[in-house]
From TrEMBL:
It comes from Aerophobetes bacterium. This is FadR family transcriptional regulator. SUPFAM superfamilies: Winged helix' DNA-binding domain. Gene3D superfamilies: Winged helix-like DNA-binding domain superfamily/Winged helix DNA-binding domain. InterPro entries: Tscrpt_reg_HTH_GntR, WH-like_DNA-bd_sf, WH_DNA-bd_sf. Coiled coil: none annotated. GO terms for molecular function: DNA binding; DNA-binding transcription factor activity. CDD domains: WHTH_GntR (cd07377). Residues 9-57 form the HTH gntR-type domain.
Amino acid sequence: MVLKPIKRQKVWQQVEKQIKDLIINNKLKIGDKLPSEKELAEKLKVGRRSVREALHS
């Protein structure tokens, strides 16, 4: 049996993954605008800095 180690992710990495998932699942399409940093932070219940880091990664 081969097990992969569990990796801890930083908050901004989790935010980045959720945004990527929206794109992959066609919930966010070409030309769509993302909500503001403030709105994303409120919806995801994270700090704006985490959202900013995710968007700049």
